[in-house]
Amino acid sequence: MGRGGGVFANYLGLDDSVISGPEVRAAKSHDPLAAFGALAANQSYADYTAGKPQKFLAMSLIEFPDDAAASAAAADMDRADFTANADNAPVAVDAFPSAISHWRPGIPTLGSVMAYKSLVIRVYVEALDPDLGKLVDMVTRSYRRQIDLLANYTPTSPVDLPKLQLDPDKLLSRTVLTEDPTPAAMKFAVWGTHAFSALLGKPAEDAKTNADRGLTAVAISFNKRLYKLRDSTAAKSYAKFLDEDPSGPAYAPINGVSGLSDVSCRQRSKPGTDSVEARRFRCIITRGEYVAMVYSNTDTDVRQLAGAQYSVMGATA
To answer: Average pLDDT of 157-184?
Structure first.
């Protein structure tokens, strides 16, 4: 089950939302260029009780300027994390001799870092019991799968990074701006479908669903999401899927926006504690190859927001 994650290297530098503080400080001295992490467990955050055993995996990729920087960073990251606790002991991962790993004997966790080309792969696992063999197996399988996925990975040259388009489809300019536009993973950002799916509750299943339905990109702007589909037909189908999705909280239909047949609005059937955002009312808007979902705690506001969102979705890029 997905536990979130996301980008943890941005215009402010690296942060410790996915890797440890000592690892962050060690990595910073080697000029990290980009970083992304994904978390998974055998239960959701809502079902998890702090202190109780769980199966858990945190996978992180950190890009450095070159292979030498990645190798040096991996060594320094492990050294910094290792020395943070006197009980840590080194561990060998035989299938990957270049991996540097350690654990605290008797504690069912194992951390490992390995340089792979200009990347550092960082793996952190937790098991139900402190069986070192099981922990090493979890790390080994994680490395194998991650390296398979990196087979066709080509890093962007550091000199070309400033040339990358942050929002190539100009999705954020097609959302109504209601808050400060400071980049934040699930508040103001644009995602490709693979990375976006990695942050959801069922990453593999969600990635397949999104691909099958023709989703190509997602923009998040606080209480709004904008989905770009491959064409208008796929957009209409995706809007229907979102509107009727039985896996989410129950919403009952309410009146939409006068004069806009491509806007469908609903009211949550009962109060929920699954989100801190205002989500009592929602509207789904379809226009061309775009689908938007907007939320509010009042029906008047959500309709006004939906009308405004419909308008900006028709803007010329």
So the answer is: 89
Tell which phi-psi region holds residue 117, choosing left (phi > 0), alpha (psi between -120 and 50) or beta: left
195 and 136 in a single domain? The answer is: no
- As a whole number of angstroms, the distance between CA 71 and CA 30 comes to 10
pLDDT at 274 over 70: no
The closest of 207, 119, 226 to 167, measured between CA atoms, is 226
Cβ burial, residue 212 (10 Å; 0-12/13-18/19+)? exposed
Please give the Cα distance from 2 to 49 (Å, whole number): 16
Q: Is there a single domain that holds both residue 22 and residue 150?
A: yes
Residues 141 and 258 in one domain: no
Instruction: List pLDDT tens digits, range 281-305.
Output: 999 999 999 999 999 999 999 999 9
What value does the CA radius of gyration of the chain take, rounded to a whole number of Å? 22
Note if the pTM is more than 0.85.
yes
Q: Write out the residue range of the structural domain in which residue 265 sits.
A: 172-313
Domain boundary among 98, 131, 158: 158
Distance of CA 74 to the CA centre of its chain: 23
* Cβ pair 265, 256 in contact under 8 A: yes
Give the end-to-end CA distance of the chain in Å, rounded to a whole number.
37
Shared-domain flag, residues 205 and 131: no
User: Is 164 domain-assigned?
Assistant: no
Q: Above 80 in pLDDT, residue 196?
A: yes
273 pLDDT tier (thresholds 50, 70, 90): low
